[in-house]
Amino acid sequence: MWRVLSTRGFEGLTLRAVAAELGASTGLLTHYFPNKRALLSHALEELDRRSLARPRRTAPADGSAPPAGLARVRASLLDVLPLDGEAAADNRIWVGSWDHALADPELAAAHAGRYARSRTALTAHVADAQRLGELPARADPAALAAGAQAFVLGLVVQALFAPEEFSAERQTELLDAYLAGLAGLAG
Amino acid sequence: MWRVLSTRGFEGLTLRAVAAELGASTGLLTHYFPNKRALLSHALEELDRRSLARPRRTAPADGSAPPAGLARVRASLLDVLPLDGEAAADNRIWVGSWDHALADPELAAAHAGRYARSRTALTAHVADAQRLGELPARADPAALAAGAQAFVLGLVVQALFAPEEFSAERQTELLDAYLAGLAGLAG
Where are any strands of DSSP class E within chain B? Predict the structure, then answer.
């Protein structure tokens, strides 16, 4: 399924294509996934599972974590970006799910809920940074978090379409310039 | 074609679906579009045509235009956002094209080229704003433009998934806060 998704996208994710990759019959696959929608839901759950299982800057394998505040805001934004091949593949699949999700109210609501939860978590990190004086106290933390989430999402899309222009280094520079802008407001 | 795209996305854009909307036979449609790829290319060209034909803040119908500098940067970013129903429908179709485009090297290159041209135009507006002292002269205008493009692209995605949370007013507030951050760096 992953091989089909990373090369042909959600549009190319059919029971037949996955069966062919498995060297199995479409009939056998239908036993587990009665239709394409079941396959898509499974793909999205698997994407969640993979994202959580991946080592994250916000929760490294060694148990350390960036200190609360701007460092943690930065780490959680870096965790979203396609800075290596695996993150790029997952992001390509995630971005590819938008076409299908926008046509399916239930999936669209699930995507929206996921983004809302992610903004809530980010808002808490932003509020920490405000208490520490690293971000302007007078700004609305929810607005800063929504802006930061938009920034990294758009950077994901740009990096997927122009990976040479948006190297990991370039993505990090752009994020750091963005965060410097937020912090600059404090002055 | 537009009705199919706005409800079912690129995934649902088939010769059969468009023929059904037209009340025509698939055979007749095949006369004009030999395959799905031809239909998709036509949809993307039509999207370009519609975008150019739409009244734009950067080039209003009355011939006026925002003054060079930060006002023009802001206007060209507002032109991207789904601030009304028509812009939302076009953006939904555009975002929906990414899954397909990322699976097709030729389309991916065309999308990347389009974004690169848009960044080049934006970089010129940013440079104007720098000359006018509205944005920090020491910043790289290409980096500011790439960051601003990422910001609005991500905001488009957020607004499509959560239109109630990201009203036109909220999108504009978030963009203005972002621009204030860029300008704040000047101080």
Answer: none
Distance from CA of A31 to the nearest CA of B (A): 24
What is the chain B residue with the closest CA to A103?
B8
User: Which residue numbers in chain A have pLDDT < 70?
Assistant: 185-187
Task: List chain A residues with CB under 8 Å of B181.
Answer: 178, 181-182, 184-185
Considering B10, B38, B53, which residue would you say is the last residue of a domain?
A: B53
Give domain status of residue A104, yes or no.
Answer: yes
Give B57 to chain A, closest Cα distance, Å: 22
CB contact under 8 A, B99 and A11: yes
In a domain, A58, yes or no: no
Q: Are residues A78 and A25 in the same domain?
A: no
pLDDT tens by residue, B113-132: 999 999 999 999 999 999 99
Structural domain including B44 reads: 1-53
* A60 within domain boundaries: no
Q: Residue A29 carries which DSSP code?
A: H
Amino acid in the structure at residue B110: A
- Look up the ipTM and state it: 0.91
Nearest-CA neighbor of A114 among A94, A86, A87, A139? A94
Per-residue pLDDT averaged across B35-58, rounded?
A: 83
